[in-house]
Structure formats: C-alpha cells, structure tokens
C-alpha cells in the first residue's frame, strides 16, 4: 500500500459561507483581491502578501490553475472528488492523509472563539467531503489552542465522531511554546496523542497524529 502522508487541502474560498456558524460570520474571514485572492481576517491577509511575515504562498492560492500543473482535479480543495481520485490513481497513491493549509494557523488569531468556530467549520467540511472518497482520503483536523481544554474537546469530536485522523498545530502560540503548562489541558484531554513530526520554527506546524488514526489508516 502506498500512503501519501503529507497531502493538503486548500480551504475553498466559500468555506465559511457554507460552514461557519451564523453568529461568527460577520467577523469571520472575507475573500478579497490583494495581489492574489486571499482571506482578510483581523486586519491580516491569509495567505500573506509579498514581503510580509505570515503563512502561505505570497501569490495567494484560490485561483491556481490545476490543469496547467498537469492535474485532473479542478481545485486544491476536497470539492472535486473524481479529479482528486484520478490524480491519486495517476501517482499510484492508495491513501492520502490531507492536512489543512491556512487553518493550521488558527491558534495565531487574536479572537479565540472565532478561531475555534473556524476550526469546527473546516473539520465539518473535511469530514463531509471525505466520505465520497471511499476511505482513500484521510483528513487531519484543525484546532485552535487559545483555549486548550476546548481544543482537546474539538480534537476528540473530530477523531471520534467525524472520523478525522489527527491534527496539526504550530510550534508556538503567542509567546508560549507547546511545553508551557498552559497547554496541559490539551495534551491531557486529547485522545491518545503522540507527536510524530516536529519542526523548530514558530510559524512551521508541528504535526500530531492519534493512535486511533494509525489503526484507521
């Protein structure tokens, strides 16, 4: 079996129109044109523009032409099931583990309640869309660590109820490293979490997988 352990899902531009809880939509991300299509949230662009610190490609990503890259899928999201499956077949991939892109940075938003709601929206989207892939696409959950106990609860929901197979967090949250006691409620309350990959830059994610995910794959 061939497993792609580092696939990605670019969140669709209308993700939050479709999935964000209504009480958060007014202050949620807005799609804007800023030298490439991006989200605007809390006065910040995601992905980052050229010459600024932040997450993602400075060229933006919503408008990427996949056919020019020789791919069958018409989108980098999970919306084109036949296209992504065809690309998996072309590459000889049996199962693909799919990470969020911009949503991996949810813990860096100022508004923790909004960040948590955005994560719930993404996780619901990823779970719903992955059903059509017949077990060949395994999404990874987004979580927001501003409230560690709430993050643990969302990870439990994502794994046990939605069938997602892990999560991704950044190496720091604000001025805190992940070994700060502040985050103990997350690690204690998460479902059998083990760190499987670590990178040492604060804006580069640390990838976390659950033991239940290992059995699912």
Explain what you see:
This protein is an alpha/beta fold and 217 residues long. A hairpin with a 2-residue loop joins strand 3 and strand 4 (44-46). The strands form four sheets. Strands 7-8-12-11 form a four-stranded mixed β-sheet. It has a three-stranded parallel β-sheet with strand order 1-5-6. Helix 3 (112-130) packs parallel to helix 4 (148-161). Mean pLDDT is 82; it is low at 194-217. Helices cover 28% and strands 23% of the residues. The longest helix is centred in the middle third of the chain and has 19 residues, at 112-130. It has a single domain, classed as TIM Barrel (Alpha-Beta Barrel). It has six helices and twelve strands. The protein is globular, with a radius of gyration of 17 Å. It has helices spanning 15-19, 81-91, 112-130, 148-161, 184-189, 211-216; strands spanning 3-9, 30-33, 37-41, 44-46, 95-100, 137-139, 141-142, 166-170, 172-173, 176-177, 193-197, 205-210.
Brief write-up:
The chain contains 6 helices and 12 strands. With 217 residues, the chain is α/β, with parallel strands linked by helices. The protein is globular.
């Amino acid at each position: 079996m061939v497993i792609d352990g580092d696939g990605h899902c670019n969140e669709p531009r209308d993700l939050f129109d479709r999935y964000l809880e209504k009480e958060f939509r007014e202050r949620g991300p807005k799609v804007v044109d800023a030298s490439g299509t991006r989200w605007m949230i809390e006065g910040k662009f995601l992905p980052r523009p050229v010459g600024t610190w932040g997450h993602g490609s400075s060229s933006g990503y919503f408008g990427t032409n996949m056919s020019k890259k020789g791919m069958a899928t018409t989108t980098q999201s999970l919306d084109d099931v036949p296209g992504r499956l065809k690309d998996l077949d072309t590459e000889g991939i049996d199962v693909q583990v799919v990470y969020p892109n911009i949503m991996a940075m949810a813990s860096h938003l100022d508004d923790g309640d909004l960040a948590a709601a955005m994560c719930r929206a993404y996780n619901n989207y990823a779970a719903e869309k992955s059903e059509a892939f017949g077990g060949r696409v395994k999404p990874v959950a987004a979580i927001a660590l501003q409230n560690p106990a709430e993050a643990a609860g969302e990870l439990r929901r994502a794994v046990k109820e939605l069938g997602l197979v892990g999560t991704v967090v950044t190496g720091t949250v604000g001025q805190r490293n992940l070994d700060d006691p502040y985050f103990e409620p997350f690690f204690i309350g998460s479902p059998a979490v083990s760190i499987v990959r670590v990178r040492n830059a604060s804006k580069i994610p640390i990838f976390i997988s659950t033991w239940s995910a290992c059995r699912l794959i």
